[in-house]
Design brief:
This protein is of the alpha/beta class. The protein has twelve helices and nine strands. About 45% of the residues lie in helices and about 20% in strands. The strands form two sheets. Strands 3-2-1-4-5-9-8 form a seven-stranded mixed beta sheet, with helices on both faces. The protein has a two-stranded parallel sheet with strand order 6-7. β6 (about 210), α8 (about 220-225) and β7 (about 235) form a beta-alpha-beta unit. The longest helix has 19 residues, at about 285-300.
Length: about 325
Amino acid sequence: MADTGPHTAEHDTGPGPGPAPGATAGAGSPTGQRGVQFRYHRELFPALHDWERTERSIVEFSGEEGPTGLLGLDQMGHFGPQGCDLVADAVLAHGEGPLDVCELGSGFGGALRYTVDKISAGGLSVRRAHGVDLVPEHCAVSRNINRAQGRTGMTDICASATAVPLPGASLDVVWVTGSMPHFPAPGEVLREAGRLLRPGGLLVLTEEVSLTPGGEEPSEAFRVTHPRGVFFTTPLADRLRDLERAGFADVVREDLTPWAVALLTDRLKVVRIFRGSVAGIYGAASADLIRDTLDAARTEFLAARLSPALITARRA
């Protein structure tokens, strides 16, 4: 049910744009893109910074513990766990394990944990999983969750997605679940993914609100819940060009528009029906912002101003 998830941008240069509407920067608050993304996601999901209390509320709501019981409440983007399923399916179709994998823009790590579990359940072993996020507070929460769940094979790396402190050609799969709009320079992120992957390695992107069919901007109504400086869009032609320049081949783009419209319609129904429970977990303001964010994205999909897609590519 979460909307954008704390997926953060790769740069932290300069003061960056102002905070998202309603956000405030206090003394000692982070600056640059790190600060912009931190304040936006802190305003949207303040409860996730008190993870222990929030997890108790989620378990009480869902009746289950662990990632299965989180039911998409653990910060998994506009597409929720269904988007993670797309990534897991692409990885399972790619080849054999054991795999060394990495998610760029991993936030609180909900999508990474869920996707790794799906891959493992599908019969591929994951030897090591890395989550890379720019915001130290997000990494700290993810570490706490991983520790509580006994995930010794998962590492949180607080770093730019354009400069990941891992050796070149050390990974089998790199994925991005919905974080592409939070990267001001997505071409640099793709180049870093190409550096990290072994020859033949797989890249998987779920493009939620990041691609435009041409060079046009989304509507101003969309920007109310997806502010400039926090969300960046890229023309589809530029994304395909950047993939080629980053050394990727066999690029496949699957248009997800009908699927995404139906998914967000269903998620909106759930958010509205269970608003009281969502508000009890995240707070009333966050519950309403989740609803408005999903609704704004769905409107852009219907108007063909944004092109939701699944992109897979192989490192040449």
